[in-house]
Specification:
Blueprint (H helix, E strand, L loop, with lengths): L2 E8 L12 H18 L1 E2 L13 H9 L3 H9 L10 H11 L3 H9 L1 H23 L8 H12 L4 H6 L3 H26 L9 E6 L15 E5 L13 E5 L17 H6 L21 E4 L1 E2 L2 E10 L10 H5 L9 E2 L12 E11 L4 H9 L5 H8 L4 H6 L3 E2 L3 H4 L12 E2 L31
Antiparallel strand pairs: 1-10, 2-7, 3-4, 3-5, 5-6, 8-9, 8-10, 11-12
């Protein structure tokens, strides 16, 4: 199987640019944006979902690699920054966990001798009781929390044992998120060198065996062979051949002459890690050998229609359920055959697009390339906080600038580029910085201006 097929509807496409205020100009711009997406692809960033619901999986992973398991356990168990999507009993349980030693600490402060004699045993007793009290509040899908509490009931205050009680796949999720975060940073740095051409010092994948041929497939180094791009072989390769390493002890690293590209040690230092942290001697299941990931992804079988519609909640594409029940689209949903639209009808504009991506590439990142919007958690929270019923119900908001800006690939943000529209003009757009909180460039694949 090549990968996954996606069909996406982007509703209520609007423009804040005076040059594209009418629907005919807007349709032309959308078509050019899609054609650019088809022909150039996009940087293969890891999407926000890779970093967890609260965008903190990679920060926990850093503590895992440093074997600071007490910190990891508390980060998993403590209250989160936002409670809006949690049940009240879960919120109360997390607060109770965080405050479990508060009363004990006050008693210990009052009697220093008592603190020395009994503090460890008292803390174990208190933690065991709290763990017993709150474990029933966590649902069956909260795998990490339940595994930690089950372990602490048996062995209170043994945080190493508690973290290692988490299922292996979930444990690896934390350290893999660190790799993903650092890969996103590397991809941004690589794009600043040249986002559209192979350069000397690049790594290219020259062999990639699938599982049937003895390789490891999309995850792992088995069956993968890379080589460096040199002046002698550079004409053999194109940008879609270039790979960047997922940091580990067994991968090769690009060799660029440009000193702005970080060395592996410099990259790890950004998250307070060293190469030795990736090669655990005591917990071999947490070792990171590394892997390679394509720098640029090309979507396949791209199809699209620009449509007009009237109601925010009406379907714009025929779903499988609609096909089974022999239902069609409402007559007010009309595909645009040419660029001529009657603005007097006051219809809304939508882009319905389908594409196929290889395994491990993110549709959210592909859509971001079309919409030119940042994906920092601050920006997403701002969107989720919109009071507009339209925004809540329709995924609307592809905001398109004028046709010159669609094709721009400048390293710095151009405020007329395509972005999700925030209707409250007083709100600033967070996440405009070069690197967002998931490690990726909010401007994605844009050519650096020559000085």
């Amino acid at each position: 199987m090549y990968g996954n097929r996606f069909d996406v509807a982007l509703r209520n496409i609007q423009s804040t640019s005076s040059n594209s205020s009418n629907s005919n100009n807007l349709t032309k711009i959308i078509k050019e944006a899609v054609e650019c997406f088809k022909s150039t692809g996009f940087i293969n960033y890891f999407g926000t979902q890779r970093f967890g619901k609260h965008h903190d999986t990679h920060t926990m992973g850093i503590h895992v690699l440093k074997h600071d398991f007490e910190k990891v356990v508390n980060d998993i168990m403590n209250p989160k920054l936002t409670y809006k999507d949690s049940y009240e009993n879960v919120i109360k349980a997390r607060i109770k966990w965080k405050q479990r030693f508060d009363k004990l600490s006050k008693q210990e402060e009052a009697d220093e001798e008592e603190k020395l004699k009994n503090s460890v045993e008292k803390r174990k007793s208190v933690e065991k009781k709290v763990a017993n009290d709150i474990i029933s509040n966590f649902g069956r899908f909260m795998i990490s929390e339940i595994a930690i509490l089950q372990s602490l009931i048996r062995n209170p205050c043994d945080y190493t044992r508690a973290f290692l009680n988490i299922p292996q796949g979930t444990k690896l999720m934390f350290v893999h998120a660190v790799q993903s975060y650092l890969w996103n940073i590397l991809a941004t740095k690589r794009a600043e060198l040249d986002s559209e051409n192979v350069v000397v010092g690049d790594l290219v994948l020259v062999q990639n065996k699938d599982k049937d041929d003895g390789g490891s497939g999309t995850s792992g180094l088995l069956g993968k062979v890379v080589e460096y791009v040199t002046n002698e072989n550079i004409k053999k390769y194109k940008i879609t051949d270039v790979v960047l390493p997922l940091i580990g002890t067994k991968v090769q690293y690009p060799k660029y002459t440009d000193k702005t590209f970080p060395t592996m040690d410099e990259l790890l230092k950004e998250v307070d890690l060293k190469i030795s942290h990736l090669d655990s001697k005591t917990h071999k299941e947490l070792k990171l050998g590394g892997d390679y990931r394509k720098f640029v992804t090309m979507p396949k079988d791209v199809t699209y229609e620009i449509k007009t519609y009237q109601k925010n909640t009406q379907p714009l594409m025929v779903s499988d359920a609609m096909k089974i029940s022999d239902q069609g689209l409402d007559s007010t949903v009309v595909p645009i055959v040419d660029t001529k639209i009657d603005d007097e009808e006051k219809n809304k504009l939508a882009l319905c697009i389908g594409f196929t991506l290889p395994a491990s590439s993110y549709a959210t990142i592909a859509v971001r390339e079309l919409m030119k919007c940042p994906t920092s958690s601050d920006f997403q929270i701002l969107l989720e906080g919109e009071d507009s019923d339209d925004a809540a119900n329709t995924n609307e908001g592809m905001d398109v600038g004028d046709d010159d800006d669609v094709m721009k690939r400048d390293a710095e943000k151009d405020d007329d580029g395509m972005k999700i529209e925030v209707k409250d003009e007083d709100k600033k757009r967070p996440g405009e910085e070069k690197i967002d909180d998931n490690g990726n460039n909010s401007d994605k694949r844009k050519k650096v201006k020559k000085q």
